[in-house]
Design a protein that fits this description.
The structure is a single chain. The protein has about 450 residues and is mainly beta. Helices cover about 10% and strands about 40% of the residues. The strands form seven sheets. Strands 1, 2, 3, 4, 5, 6 and 7 form a seven-stranded mixed β-sheet that branches. A four-stranded antiparallel β-sheet has the order 10-9-8-31, with no helix packed on it. A four-stranded antiparallel β-sheet has the order 11-12-13-14, with no helix packed on it. Helix 2 crosses helix 3. It is globular, with a radius of gyration of 23 Å.
């Protein structure tokens, strides 16, 4: 959802669907509870033994501490793992750790995590990790990585995801990244950040308004709407070259593209034929089909996980509401009836829920609903300020949103099952329109050596 103050005049015709509210006072540092009906999920309790350091390299101790601390952060932020207190010397729980992630000393840990740092050469080390079931003394997981002291992230993220998958059977998020728009006014660039808030970097530098970045399913490309050179257009950035290519520059709007699950098409809003309507296009920009025909504004389209349906916003009843249709434009049905302003709907990767933004009492809040319109749930509270631009994590459990609960729009991650939220970004500029990548690595292409 786009802020009024951040739009150029070319986009003002969709303000009725894409406007937003002002900020609210800053909130504290404590985890934020969401209004959900589900109970907190149980975390698996691990006991982390002191790091065994067998390397005599002068920088090994510092490197080992950095690796272990990042692993602690990744495991806690997975929302599947709890670590027994006290942690090994020098390690600490990350900010916004919920109490459910802190195991008491007297609690019986179900598993033991052992880390060993072996000497390699200056600036490099071997990280050996073992996950042990204490009663049987069986090693459930054993990994070995060669790690650069200055850049241990890839190995640590892979290890954290391997532990999560072993203990929960679910996909881990440590190797995922979030792309988003950062800046103010007509000066916004596309940025990238790792799941744990590290690795922040800017990936566009065209000095204009760049919005709504969206990953391709294989993570190799990004599409985004840009006002580069003063004209709204849809660009695709190739991750292998770092270069952006124009694929759509029709008259009027070229707004809010979303990839199909197979990466063979995108769905977006165009207005070159008059009204703002929804179209399917190929990655080269060629129009496949116009799928909406209405004098109303039709916008914010997104595919379901199968690629057979599209969820979108329409104000055909006089106010923006959420609708669903087949990808060819047939079988249209209205999904939301509560609230006078609903927008930015996105389908869960599991296909079981649709998240969207609804304005209630002057504030934008996140809601979820099942695809048949049942089981409406409010996921954020009015005291959390405005919460917008929801995007699902690959696990279908977490959302990343733009929230001004800290005083200005920043990215926050919401765990919809446990009800805990944590900040993902901070700093100058407003952070909006995030999108979450798919899981990166598997055991077949792991960084094991």
């Amino acid at each position: 959802m786009l802020k009024n103050r951040d739009l150029s005049s070319a986009a003002l015709c969709v303000v009725a669907i894409l406007s937003a509210a002002g900020s609210t006072p800053a909130q504290g540092e404590h985890p934020v509870r969401l209004r959900i009906s589900r109970q907190s999920v149980d975390r698996v309790l691990l006991h982390m033994e002191p790091i065994e350091l067998t390397s005599s390299l002068p920088d090994a101790a510092v490197g080992a501490q950095r690796v272990a601390q990042q692993l602690v952060t990744n495991l806690i932020y997975s929302d599947w793992i709890a670590l027994q207190e006290p942690l090994p010397a020098g390690l600490r729980f990350p900010p916004h750790t919920p109490e459910t992630a802190r195991g008491r000393t007297q609690d019986i840990a179900r598993f033991i995590l052992r880390l060993q740092i072996e000497g390699e050469q200056s600036g490099r080390m071997a990280l050996v990790a073992r996950l042990v079931e204490p009663e049987s003394r069986t090693a459930l997981l054993a990994k070995r990585y060669v790690v650069d002291f200055s850049q241990p992230e890839r190995a640590v993220h892979h290890l954290a995801d391997a532990i999560v998958r072993q203990l929960s059977g679910e996909v881990g998020l440590s190797q995922t990244r979030v792309v988003f728009s950062r800046g103010s006014g007509d000066n916004r660039e596309i940025w990238l950040v790792d799941f744990d808030g590290e690795g922040l970097r800017r990936i566009t530098r065209n000095g204009s308004l760049n919005l709504l970045p969206r990953w391709s399913p294989d993570g190799s490309k990004l599409c985004y709407t840009s006002y580069w050179q003063g004209r709204q257009r849809l660009l695709v950035l190739d991750g292998s070259t770092g270069k952006s290519q124009k694929i759509a520059e029709y008259d009027g709007l070229n707004l809010g593209a979303h990839w199909s699950p197979d990466g063979q098409e995108l769905v977006l809003t165009l207005s070159h034929e008059g009204d703002a309507e929804i179209y399917r296009i190929r990655p080269d920009g060629k129009i496949v089909q116009r799928v909406s025909f209405s004098s109303a504004i039709e916008a914010s389209p997104a595919y379901d996980p199968t690629g057979r349906q599209i969820v979108y916003t329409s104000d055909r009843t006089g106010v923006p509401q959420i609708y669903v249709m087949d990808k060819d434009g047939t079988n249209r049905r209205r999904l939301t009836y509560e609230g006078k302003y609903n927008d930015s709907a996105v389908w869960s990767p599991r296909g079981d829920r649709i998240a969207y933004v609804s304005r209630r009492g002057g504030l934008f809040q996140i809601f979820t609903v099942e695809p048949d319109g049942s089981n409406l749930q409010e996921m954020t509270l009015p005291e959390d300020g405005n919460n917008e631009d929801p995007a699902w994590a690959p696990d279908g459990r977490h959302l990343v949103v733009s929230s001004d609960r800290g005083g200005r729009p920043q990215l926050w991650i919401l765990d919809l099952d446990s009800g805990v939220a944590r900040p993902l970004t901070d700093g100058d500029g407003d952070d909006t329109t995030p999108h979450w990548s798919q899981p990166a690595a598997t055991d077949e292409n792991s960084p094991d050596r």
